[in-house]
Each structure stands twice: as C-alpha cells, then as structure tokens.
Design brief:
By secondary structure, this protein is of the alpha/beta class. Helices cover 38% and strands 15% of the residues. It contains 10 helices and 10 strands. α2 runs parallel beside α3, α6 packs across α7 and α8 packs across α9. The structure holds pyridoxal-5'-phosphate (PLP). Pyridoxal-5'-phosphate binds next to α7.
Length: 310
C-alpha cells in the first residue's frame, strides 16, 4: 500500500500494476485457469479461448506460457499496438476479427467468434470474465491483504468493468469488516449502473452490458466519472503523486476527490484506491494531449472505441 498526500483523507493506493503480468487481471486469470484445471475442464491439450484485447489476455497468456497451455485471444482492430505485439509473442495463436457488428463496434463479432471457436474446437475452454464466478473469487486474496494491512479503513474506491474486482474485494472485505464502504467507480456511457449507453473512448473501465457476476457484489455508493474527468484524474495522479497509471486509476483518483467534496465527514477518514495498471498502454491516448483535444472535439459524435478492456 502506498501512502498518498491528501488533505481530506488518509489516502492510500494499492498498486496492482506490480502484479506478475502488470495488472490486477492476474488475479482473475489465475483463478479462472486454476479452477478450470482443478475441475478437470483444462488439461495439457486444452485450447483456452478468450475474448479480450487487454490486460486479461496478457494475464492469461502469461499464465498459459508458464503452464505450457495453448491460449488463443480473440482481439479486434481497436487493440493497443504494443498489446497486439506482446500477445503475438506469448500466445499460441491470435485471432483478430475485422468485421464490425450491427452496433458499429467489434464486441459482438468477438463474442460470436469465441462461441464458434469453442464449439468447433475439440477440448476447448472458454475463459469468460463476465460470467465465470472464478473471476471475482480471484480477488478474495486482495480483500484479505487489504484487511490485514489496515487497523482502520473507511472507504475503498474500485473501478468497474467486468466487476470481478469490486465483487471479490467487497465480498471478502465486508465479511471481515462490514463497516468499510465500497465505492464503485464507472464512466459515463457505461450501462453497468443504469446510465444510458453512449460511445466511449476511454478504455479499461465500464461495459456495455451489466456483468452477471456483479449480482454478488456489495456496493455502498457509485460515482460516475465523465471521460474528460478521467483524463484530468490521470494527470492529477501523475502531477500530484508521481504515479503514472492507466485510465481506471485516474478515474478512482478523481472520483475520490469528488466524493469527499460532496460528503462531509467529521473525522479524517482512511481511504484506499485500487490502481489496476500502469500508464504505458495509454501513452497514445490519455497521455497524448493532441488525442485529448481531438476526442473532446469528436465528443458525442461517435467513431470511438467501445469495450476495449485494458
Ligand atoms: C485497467 C483495469 N481497470 C479496471 C479493472 C477492474 O475491472 P474488473 O471490474 O473487470 O475487475 C481492471 C481489472 O483488472 C483493469 O485491468
């Protein structure tokens, strides 16, 4: 846990980018693969298939590399260039869809491609982060780490996409310390918390479907951040705390500030931010000022990334 400077709260950050493959998705990937093996659904000849262009694909690919398992990520043209190069280096094979679906994006094409591949491949295993409860179970360990690190903890701010992190952390922490408040952080245009759908150009946070596993989460409050505020949050995290992190980290940083500007607390509370990944994958987007200007001009006019989960 890193102590951050802040006047309103005793603020801490859990730097999940120190995990083995560089993000908190290592926890989800490990849990999904481990349980697949334990239940006999994955053996040495299984082909593991997943729809992911982001951190989950990198995490599964890394684990499969160690275990000498075949992993095929299904990606689309919105993928970050460095991620594509890395996936090509460490995966068994990479399948890249190119046809847009009826919404104009690639998500539905990716999902139907994965389903077809799973049907047509003998001894295949579909790693489904949205539906597999082993996704959130992978975060119980993080919940335990948090509980043992703090004598007193009042708030945890967690960005939501597949909802694995918030579901697992909230279940595990609340079981041991029910008074800790869990604050979910989402982006405008994501439908997870009932907001109207809108094209999104920020990756790594939000979803265009409500993740089925989230029904197990225990969430006290939700903050919806604008896409412009997420960019601002990333720069503030960099300039105020010297932390170079991804979009969802900027989102939780700005969301915590917004939260405490709206909620009066008598004592200085202790808050924890979960920071899922580093900023390198966002150098051409969030951290590129020209891209930011271009996006604000295009804002609401579509032609923007959708569901690229970093
Ligand atoms: C960049 C990023 N943001 C947010 C999250 C949390 O997302 P989820 O709700 O999918 O667990 C993750 C998970 O690893 C992530 O990699």
């Amino acid at each position: 846990m890193k102590h951050l400077s802040n006047e309103t709260t005793h603020l801490y950050a859990k730097l999940e980018y120190y995990n083995f493959s560089g993000s908190s998705k290592d926890r989800a990937a490990y849990s999904i693969i481990y349980n697949g093996i334990k239940k006999g659904k994955i053996d040495q000849d299984t082909t593991i298939i997943a729809s992911s262009s982001g951190n989950l694909a990198i995490a599964i690919a890394s684990i499969c590399k160690i275990l000498k398992l075949k992993f095929v990520p299904v990606i689309d043209p919105n993928i970050n260039c460095d991620y594509e190069t890395l996936l090509n280096l460490i995966s068994y094979k990479v399948v890249k869809v190119t046809e847009r679906d009826k919404t104009g994006g690639f998500l539905l094409t990716r999902i139907s491609t994965v389903n077809q591949m799973c049907l047509n491949t003998a001894n295949s295993f579909c790693a489904d982060q949205y539906g597999d409860p082993n996704n959130y179970r992978g975060y119980y360990g993080l919940g335990n780490e948090i509980v043992s690190a703090f004598d007193k903890l009042d708030y945890i701010f967690i960005a939501v996409s597949s909802s694995g992190a918030i579901t697992g952390i909230s279940k595990s922490v609340k079981r041991q310390k029910p008074d800790v408040k869990i604050i979910g952080v989402d982006v405008e245009g994501s439908v997870i918390f009932g907001q109207p759908p809108m094209k999104r150009f920020i990756s790594g946070i939000g979803a265009s479907q409500v993740p089925p596993i989230m029904s197990n989460a225990i969430i006290d409050d939700v903050i919806i951040t604008s896409q412009a505020d997420i960019i601002k949050g990333c720069f503030e995290l960099l300039n105020e705390q010297a932390i170079f992190a991804g979009a969802s980290s900027g989102a939780v940083y700005i969301a915590s500030k917004t939260y405490f500007s709206q909620h009066y607390t008598a004592d200085k509370p202790t808050s924890l931010l979960i920071l899922p990944d580093k900023g390198y994958a966002y150098l051409d987007t969030i951290y590129n000022k020209e891209w930011g200007i271009e996006m604000s001009n295009k804002f609401n006019k579509s032609q923007i990334l959708e569901d690229v989960e970093l």
